[in-house]
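Dear support,

I submitted the protein below through the web form. The confirmation email said the job was done, but the results page showed an empty box. After a refresh the structure appeared. I'm attaching both so you can tell me whether what I see now is the final result or a partial one.
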Amino acid sequence: MNYVLMDKWNEAYIDELQKLFEQEWWTKDRKRDDIKNMLAHSDIVIGLCSPETKELIGFSRVLTDYIYKALIFDVIVKESFRGKNLGRALLEVISEHPSLQKVRHFELYCRPELLPFYQKWGFTEDLMKLYFMRKTNH
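What the results page shows now:
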């Protein structure tokens, strides 16, 4: 599948990103102003667009210190474009990003049904009894 990497996040793309977020259980309640703030404070933001329609069809972002850790968030492909290797494209763009070449550990969290997809990329769940923890503020 062909795609175009996004280079500018205008208001229309923020609306399309909110629609992408609405299709996923973990992002469905995100509000537009919060999404704008998130984009401004993420270290690396990746958007994939359809070359024909210019619509947003894939998204991911990274928080990183650029040397030890890069935490990948929100790997999302628009439902009607799934099965066309766009999830793979998002991970390729991230793993080949020039600013991330010195990073030692790429990390993410996912649901069990996505383990096989991420394991193809070398991600492992064998982290010697490391636990994911969360504290909610609001």
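Response: this is the final, complete result; the empty box was a page-load delay. The chain has four helices and five strands.
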